[in-house]
Design brief:
about 500 residues, alpha/beta, Rossmann fold, Nucleotidyltransferase, domain 5, 2 domains, 6-stranded mixed beta sheet
Amino acid sequence: MTDFRAGLRAALSDIGLYSRLFLPKYALRPYQVGPARAIVESVDKGLGRQFAVVFSRQAGKDEMLAQLLAFLLTRYQLRGGGAVLAAPTFRPQAALSRDRLIDRLDNPLTAGTGKTRDGYAVTLGKASARFLSAAPGANARGQTADLLLVANEAQDIQPEIWDAVFDPMAASTNATTLFLGTVWSRDTLLARQMRHFEELEKQDGVRRVWKVGWETVAQDLPAYGDRVRARIEQFGIGHPFIKTEYCLEELDGEGGLFPPGRLALLRGDHERRHQAEPGKRYALLVDVAGEEEGSAGPGSFTDDSRRDSTALTVIELRASSSELRGDRSLPSYRVVDRMAWTGTRHTELHSALVHLARVVWRASVVVVDATGVGAGLTSFLSASLGVRSEGYPAIQVVPFGFTQASKSALGWDLLGLIDSGRLTEYRVDSATGTPEGRLTAIFWDQLRATTYETVPGPGKLLRWQVPSGRGHDDLVMSLALVATLDNVDWRLRTARGRSE
């Protein structure tokens, strides 16, 4: 009995030993134990320290948090004490953390003793952990944290809400505070706190920031490293998600969405084409602008800063037969031509696009901006191209509606295609004085002028555009529609084309 009690005291004095003995299925790894021990020390000694813990994606941040809370509730169940956890939303984020804690309390030491109260609190004896929403408008005031105050997914919690509602919960008790999340942009709550803690570290040498990148995790979990390397191969090392979620680098929106390095990746060495080549597959991407009476016709384009143009990008699918059978999941794409029309009536534009899709390019797919004025043109193209006609096979017409969310996703996907090398542009025209050369130059100018910002909060919304006064983004938006082609079943289209 004496040995058992000694062992129990030892287990409850060290979170690493507690995890190995009572939660062996979820035993914490060394990179998780380090910050957990520092946090427990601050709680036990009443030091009131603040910490930032940032792990690469799926590396066990939430598991560490659940076991940390379970350990503290177990240690303080007789003396009492409270922890408060804030998440950007209650469902699913805070509720998932609550449920994970309940599950981890179901261990040989505390099984059956943990209780849920009022849907948002977990109690063990006199100790409790409360899980609250930090969403705007949520009613989270009036709570007190005397053990631990946590901001989980802190990059998605608005700093002003944290400062006004949650930070005061630890003021009277000097409770230890923990910020968890993913590195994102410089203006997030997590980034702000990390910068502050790094300055404090320089002053007193006490470690407050724990950053664990994917390569550290891969040392303990080789399969994790294989998975991340595959993601890097797919999206490219410079893709924002790779930089932030695996390499733990902040985004900087000041340099534009297409910095020189990304533009260099986009530049290809293939020639521009003006019609289909035998045996190759093509898609047309159309960003639709308004029309005007008395336009100059379907071939007209003017570099007029006052007016958007309807922009067309022609894509050549690059995939081996094995890729189209599904041995690899995604093809690559080459831009082989682009055109634009300014003010052209949609009836004339419809005829021009039908001719280009059927006769000139023999396209497999046409993606059309179906937002606003584009809805009618999309409908007409679907009716005309969606059926066999005059010996030409049917062509799949894919409508795309621009919303804040869909444009954000399109932007992220476009960056993934560029950064992974799956999308390349034709060689820049040498004859820049020709209409085609000027159009190409305008396209690259639009890329350079495209700015972006990442919106704080869940969803990682990307706002990207050419600012008013710096031109248009019609050619860029037409190119961005290439990301929709990853959802096309090219094998199905191939089979139908051969049978017809």
